């Protein structure tokens, strides 16, 4: 799918990871009116996200799936969701939780339940939905497309952005998979250096919830 074909207006746009980058860029460009389930999590392997979607989030963030991995900072723990190998980076603060007692769990679980419910509702009702993912292979993207075909009721597209040190700017790559557009961006500019590239990319994508 060509980049020119993915441009246009959507009535729902979601990040599918792999880190917070997509959510940050969507928010900068007023394309993120609400949070998705994976916005602030780490999901390094797209195959795990595919499995999560295929199971419609069954068991996601259940208490017995959670293990404290380490301190990310003085303020936050990294908590792993072991069923799907996804990391919670921004939910469990050190002042209110310990490795043996995630006291904030009930409120965190309720938050994710709301986000999952909204996500599934949008998949069922939105006329046209865009899913954006950083990092993944074309094989994984094709699997994602096939899973979303059974989850999303109406039209959808997938934008896959990989980062590499072999390009100087945004490069569109050949993608034979229907509904998937594949781009490359410079690895060195991952968090902020590629802001102009994201601005150009997202300037041609619009959100209309009416």
The unreliable regions are: none
> Could you tell me how far the N terminus lies from the C terminus, measured between alpha carbons in angstroms?
27 Å
The overall number of domains is 1
Tell how many strands the DSSP assignment holds: 11
Radius of gyration: 17 Å
List the total number of helices: 6
Could you tell me the mean pLDDT? 98
Instruction: Give the spatial strand order of the biggest sheet.
Output: 2-7-8-10-9
The structure class reads: alpha/beta
Question: What share of the residues lie within helices?
Answer: 25-40%
What is the molecular shape? Answer: globular
> Could you state the order of secondary-structure elements as H and E?
HEEHEHEEEHEHEEEHE
Largest sheet: 5 strands, mixed
Sheet-strand content, in percent, reads: 25-35%
Give a verbal description of the structure.
- This protein is α/β, with parallel strands linked by helices and 210 residues long.
- The chain has one domain (3-207).
- The chain is built from six helices and eleven strands.
- The chain has helices at 3-6, 21-28, 46-54, 105-125, 138-151, 195-202; strands at 8-10, 12-15, 41-42, 66-71, 76-81, 86-93, 128-134, 155-164, 171-173, 180-186, 205-207.
- The strands form three sheets. Strands 2-7-8-10-9 form a five-stranded mixed sheet, sandwiched between helices. A four-stranded antiparallel sheet has the order 3-6-5-4, with no helix packed on it.
- Helix 3 runs parallel beside helix 5.
- The two termini are 27 Å apart.
- The model has no long low-confidence stretch (mean pLDDT 98).
């Amino acid at each position: 799918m060509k980049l020119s074909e993915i441009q246009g207006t959507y009535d729902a746009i979601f990040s599918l990871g792999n880190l917070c980058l997509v959510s940050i860029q969507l928010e900068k460009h007023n394309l993120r009116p609400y949070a998705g389930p994976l916005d602030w999590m780490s999901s390094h392997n797209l195959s795990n996200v595919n499995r999560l979607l295929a199971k419609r989030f069954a068991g996601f963030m259940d208490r017995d799936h959670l293990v404290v991995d380490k301190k990310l900072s003085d303020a936050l723990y990294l908590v792993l969701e072991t069923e799907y190998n996804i990391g919670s980076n921004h939910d469990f603060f050190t002042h209110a939780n310990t490795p043996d007692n995630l006291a904030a769990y009930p409120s965190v679980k309720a938050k994710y339940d709301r986000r999952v419910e909204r996500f599934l509702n949008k998949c069922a009702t939105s006329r046209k939905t865009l899913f954006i993912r950083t990092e993944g292979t074309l094989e994984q993207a094709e699997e994602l497309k096939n899973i979303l075909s059974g989850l999303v009721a109406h039209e959808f597209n997938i934008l896959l952005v990989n980062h590499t040190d072999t390009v100087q700017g945004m490069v569109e790559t050949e993608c034979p998979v229907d509904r998937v557009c594949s781009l490359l961006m410079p690895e060195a500019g991952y968090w902020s250096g590629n802001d102009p590239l994201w601005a150009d990319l997202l300037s041609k994508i619009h959100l209309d919830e009416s």
